[in-house]
Amino acid sequence: MPSESTTPAGAPVLSVRHLSTDFVSAEGVVSHALEDVSFDVLPGETVGLVGESGCGKTTVLMSLMRLLPAAGRITAGQVLFDGVDLLGLSERDMRRHRWKDMAMVFQSAMNALNPVYTVGEQIREAILLHGMMDQKGADRRVVELLDMVGIAGARKSQYPHQYSGGMRQRAMIAMALACLPRVLFADEPTTALDVMVQAQVLELLKRIQRSMELAVVLVTHDLGVVAEICDKVVVMYGGKVAEYGPIDQVYNSPQHPYTQRLLEAFPDLNAPGDVLASIPGYPPRLNALPPGCRFEPRCHKRIDVCADVPPKLVDVSDRKDEREWTRAENPSFRLPPSSFRHVAACHLCEGPEATF
Fold first, then answer.
1. What Å distances lie between residue 120 and 132, 155, 169, 294, CA to CA?
2. What is the CA radius of gyration of the chain?
3. Cα 212 to Cα 193: distance, rounded to the nearest angstrom
4. Which of 77, 111, 302, 341 has the greatest number of C-beta atoms within 10 Å?
């Protein structure tokens, strides 16, 4: 069971509002890693963050956890957990939320695990740090957690180098779940794993999510993984949200040219003869961003205004989906508007300016 929830029924457990993050080099050069990022995560929902390397996906997670390196600083926005703005908390108060309310599976399990401590000691430390139980209880909990992720409890006394890559990733998941969080951040959880182990890790995440009613924010490059396990997707480019919405709407009716190109570059088993699309050029440097749309230099649909005027997020939601779900599933219950919100930042999109 997850930590006790105080979130009203149908409300997001996590709301990110206009989040902006900069990195400042030793020479004082400022790189705008994130700008005006907004999205919601409902209890039990999986939200995928996708985009090319360097677009800001991992920086989003590190900003939400307030684990940025010394050069990073959050310059604007709110991160609302159960209505509490985590960015306004002291570091001491923020520690009470890490691992207990929200936890993270880091990208490289070999680097994230301490090589001089046993896996069991590292999992137990998180439990004891938050005062959830005594030493004996923590030892029993470690065995339960390892068993949950498919690792024999007897291997708790082994060191990370004695685990395979897949086992280390499972151990990281066990550690993240040690304090029964309600939100799990997973940063490329299948990196450097072979295809079969990737499938096993993803299936494990789905099973645990269902059993614990976890909300999950998943960073990945794999559009197939997003299509399979995510409810909503945030497409990022150059530190900004290019498109955001329910997975069906974004995949079946992509509105931003960048999203369109990403999906066209993904192979379709039903059309094996199709030529895959490519995107010429490179993503922008975050310390030398173009004045207009950040995708404009590479965009196949650019118009004159794109070079000088940054586009605003426009609401392109299909309200028909909302009406059909409400009528077909449960007329007495309505999902919050964020469940159906589909927005895109493109001058070619028509609709009212999106509000968050």
1. 16, 8, 14, 46
2. 21
3. 25
4. 341
* pTM of the predicted structure, to 2 decimals: 0.89
pLDDT tens digits, 154-175: 999 999 999 998 899 899 999 9
Q: Is 23 helix (H, G, I), strand (E, B) or coil?
A: strand
Give the phi and the psi of residue 298 in degrees, each rounded to 5: -115, 0
Which pLDDT tens digit goes with each residue over 201-215? 889 889 999 888 899
Q: Which region among 18-27, 165-174, 239-248 has the lowest average model confidence (pLDDT)?
A: 165-174
How is the chain split into domains, by residue range? 14-101+181-345, 112-180
CATH class of 14-101+181-345: alpha beta
Cβ atoms 261, 242 nearer than 8 A: no
**Extended strands (E) in the chain:** 14-24, 30-41, 46-50, 72-81, 84-85, 102-105, 183-187, 215-219, 232-237, 240-246, 313-315, 343-345
**Which residue type sits at 32?**
H
CB within 8 A of 271, min separation 6: which ones? none
Distance CA 32, CA 11 (A): 31
Task: Give the tokens for residue 118.
Answer: 């046993």
